[in-house]
């Protein structure tokens, strides 16, 4: 009789460990990490939106904030950094955009000091603008690669939605390109 009660107690304990209530508690334990990490895609999406609008200052600040959240989240979980194409593109792009911002500020604010003359700075403006368009396309590609990583892919694996969105954005950006201002 005692053996049967002991077996039933073990079975009851095992069923509790796999019960939906226990699973929900385990999910809630990791919710804080996901709540913190949710600011990464939000800030990066806002950054790319502002980049598309040509507002580099705020876009760069939001990009740095998004990168900080991603690095902090990886550190919390003791995971290796810069392991995906999304991370490689994102970090590289943030460095390029920061350089682009500094270059644009030099052209607009200190043309004589940095470039020797206003005329020489104006001649370099076309490169600033052309690289801006290239970086914008790379920013959207980086966002696309983010949709193909880990949790996002597991929970929303609809590749056609992401591809259609990227194509629509690219068509819109190409239509906005002012070829006369690039002047190659």
TrEMBL record:
Keywords: Electron transport, Heme, Iron, Membrane, Metal-binding, Transmembrane, Transmembrane helix, Transport. Residues 1-180 form the Cytochrome b561 domain. It comes from the Eukaryota. SMART domains: B561 (SM00665). The chain crosses the membrane at residues 48-72, 84-110, 130-147, 159-177. It is found in: Membrane. Its main location: membrane. GO terms for cellular component: membrane. GO terms for molecular function: metal ion binding; transmembrane monodehydroascorbate reductase activity. PANTHER family: CYTOCHROME B561 DOMAIN-CONTAINING PROTEIN (PTHR15422:SF45), OS05G0565100 PROTEIN (PTHR15422). This is 358_t:CDS:1. It comes from Ambispora leptoticha. The lineage of its organism: Eukaryota, Fungi, Fungi incertae sedis, Mucoromycota, Glomeromycotina.
